[in-house]
Design brief:
Blueprint: E1 3-5, E2 8-9, E3 12-13, E4 20-24, E5 31-36, H1 42-58, H2 62-78, H3 80-91, H4 95-117, E6 124-126, E7 131-132, E8 139-147, E9 152-155, H5 163-175, E10 179-182, H6 188-201, E11 209-211, E12 228-232, H7 235-242, H8 245-250, E13 253-257, E14 263-266, H9 275-289, E15 301-305, H10 309-320, H11 341-354, E16 359-363, E17 383-387, E18 405-411, H12 414-422, E19 427-433, H13 437-448, E20 451-457, E21 476-477, E22 488-489, E23 499-507, H14 508-511, E24 518-520
Parallel strand pairs: 1-5, 6-24, 9-10, 9-12, 10-11, 12-13, 14-15, 14-19, 15-18, 17-18, 19-20
Antiparallel strand pairs: 2-3, 4-5, 6-8, 7-8, 8-23, 16-17, 21-22
């Protein structure tokens, strides 16, 4: 019988519930795990985390909590073989694509363990220097940052069951805030196994880490004024979260990452045969095929000079034709499946919708799948679309197809390219490829207002650049407008979401007593 993914609340594993949902292998369609219905006693679980979990975490120093993150990373590393097996079975990913998720999780934990250690024995963060409020200089104001007196509820997407948990949990736990995770049901197995391993290790105090699999019913109702919620998923669900009575009534702080029509721009200097042109083509293919295009940061709109349109299309199509798709258990397969047959149907419908105003430049559906039944497996082959008159296209700037799909858009000049990028109405990331560093800097400044990150690649960093779609913990992740308006990571900046800023006013003699247990808030 497949594993049942039990909820963990109030430091206890809950029994199986009456309602059960089967998780399916996206290649074979076989049942691999089961999750239940609504969790029992959510109020008790949240209260336990707010009291026992928060008290234990906030009794520690930042340095002590950073050390716990390092220990968690070691636990995950010791179990990585099991995680790769689960990722393949539950998400249909190749080993390389599973590594993006699993190794990305441990890398992020290690990163926050390292920078958190620099905060040492501090229990309070000072936000800047004291401001003088009186003529005799004695009465002053010192801003401090204190951990929130609540829980952090994470409602995550299906595409990153490992990294999606730990990129949020690492800064939360470092801040001293207990975590309650609600993974996407379809791929909850990996998240559940990681949480179970960390709980079994005894590294974290009781109440610091909880998980609810299956139904999300009642989760938002359980939120209180000092809690925070972080959501990654669709814009439609994000709108429901923002308007939920508990969030509106209690002013619960919400961080949202939603849909994103990310773009990548090829410079006018980057003609076919140049290093920048080759880098651009390679990056576009990588973004289309990594995790079968199921990344919030994937390139959806590829902006190219009009006179290079055909050359880019031919180069990308040639590389896509060499991508083998099918069962990731076969060593010859380079790209696995989508996470479910439901997602497969959504991608096919999305392609048909975009094709109503775009031309299909490469149709991977003629490729035969390797060791996979096309009637059962959720394998979507790559599709490259193209629009030469991008000004009059509407759907490509409005509808995201969450799979191995991208659309080439031709532009006339720099101003035109920027206007097309801005039509995404706010994106997580845009990338620019060119050997003209001055031009790239100009474009980067122009794109900054509508993007959370601008990734600029010149030939001198071609081998060391971290990738358009790869989210690095030292840089912020999030974006304005359509992308949700949220912000995560970015080094110590991530801790800001889990702290409250307060002005302490008093004598400089009083305020100096903060110093022995405080560290400067240096971001």
């Amino acid at each position: 019988m497949s594993d049942y993914l039990r909820n963990f609340l109030a430091n206890d594993w809950q029994p199986e519930s009456g309602r059960v949902t089967n998780l399916l292998d996206p290649i074979t369609g076989e049942s691999i795990a089961r999750v239940g219905g609504p969790a029992d006693n959510l109020d008790v679980g949240f209260t336990f985390a707010r009291t026992r979990g928060a008290s234990a975490l906030q009794a520690m120093t930042y340095g002590q909590r950073a050390a716990m993150l390092g220990d968690i990373s070691k636990v995950l590393q010791s179990n990585r073989d099991a995680y790769y097996d689960i990722s393949l079975t539950n998400s249909g990913t190749t080993k390389a694509d599973s590594a993006v998720d699993i190794e990305g999780a441990t890398f992020t934990l290690g990163y926050y363990a390292k920078i958190g250690a620099a905060l040492g024995d501090a229990k309070t963060l000072l936000d800047g220097s004291a401001a003088v409020l009186s003529k005799d200089l004695l009465f002053q104001s010192q801003h401090i940052l204190s951990p929130i007196r609540g829980v952090a509820l994470f409602i995550n997407a299906f595409n990153f069951p490992a990294w999606g948990l730990w990129e949020k949990a690492a800064p939360a736990l470092l801040s001293g805030v207990p975590v309650i995770i609600k993974p996407a049901t379809a791929t909850a197995w990996l998240t559940h196994r990681m949480v179970a391993d960390v709980i079994a290790s005894g590294i974290l105090p009781a109440g610091a880490l909880s998980i609810v699999c299956g139904s999300s019913a009642g989760l938002l109702d359980a939120l209180q004024p000092f809690d925070v919620v972080s959501f990654t998923g669709s814009a439609d669900t994000a709108a429901i979260i923002r308007s939920h009575p508990a969030i509106a009534r209690h002013s619960v702080r919400a961080n949202i990452e939603a849909d994103s029509l990310n773009s990548s721009m090829l410079g006018v200097d980057s003609a076919p045969g140049t290093a920048a042109f080759d880098l651009y083509v390679n990056e576009l293919v990588r973004e289309m095929t990594t995790k079968s295009g199921q990344r919030c940061t994937a390139i959806r709109r590829a902006l190219v000079p009009a006179n290079y349109f055909d050359a880019v299309a031919e180069a990308v199509a040639a590389k896509l034709a060499a991508v083998s798709v099918g069962n990731p258990r076969n060593a010859d397969v380079r790209m696995g499946s989508l996470v479910s047959r439901e997602q497969f149907d959504s991608v096919q419908a999305g392609i048909a919708r975009l094709a109503s105003e775009a031309t299909v430049l490469y149709d991977g559906s003629t490729q035969a799948l390797i060791d996979a039944d096309p009637a059962i497996a959720a394998c979507a082959t790559p599709t490259l679309l193209g629009v030469r008159d991008a000004d009059h296209a509407a759907l490509v700037h409005d509808h995201e197809v969450f799979g191995p799909v991208s659309t080439l858009l031709s532009y006339r000049d720099t101003e035109h390219a920027l206007s097309l990028a801005h039509r995404g109405l706010g994106s997580l990331v845009a990338s620019v490829f060119s050997a003209d560093s001055a031009w790239m800097a100009q474009v980067g400044r122009e794109l900054a207002g509508t993007h959370g990150r601008v990734h600029m690649v010149s030939p001198d960093v071609g081998k060391t650049q971290t990738g358009h779609g790869n989210v690095m913990p030292a840089s912020i992740h999030g974006g304005p407008g359509r992308a949700g308006g949220g912000e995560e990571l970015g080094g110590l900046r991530a801790l800001g979401f889990y702290h409250r800023r307060t002005a302490l006013q008093g004598s400089s003699v009083t305020l100096q007593h903060l110093a022995p247990t405080a560290a400067d808030w240096n971001i």
